[in-house]
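Hi everyone, sorry if this is the wrong subforum. Our group has a chain we'd like a structural model of before ordering constructs, and none of us has done structure prediction before. Sequence below.
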Amino acid sequence: MVMTTDQNSGGNIGEIVGIATGSTIGPRNVGIDMLAELRNVVSDEVTQYTSLMTEAREQAIHRMLMEAESLHADAVIGVRLAASDMASGAAEIVAYGTAVKLAC
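Answer:
Right subforum, don't worry. Here is the predicted structure as tokens:
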């Protein structure tokens, strides 16, 4: 179970087991960058960037869930996503939240 809220409405939190994080760093594509500059002139969406960011976000969430599983958590609450430029041509996506065990 993954939730952006800080409380689990489906059950009580029995134990907080830690922070679960997952991240990915994706290279930016020079061809897409050139297309983006061209599309910025006509204010059109760069669907290739949208696809790359969606894949990166899903990978970061998957990695966060794998970490939560290694902590034997039942759920991750308060999930947040952050993005930042790491270096020229690379961006990092981070998913993080509180890994919890639910009370029976």
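For your construct planning: The longest strand covers residues 13-27. The radius of gyration is 17 Å.
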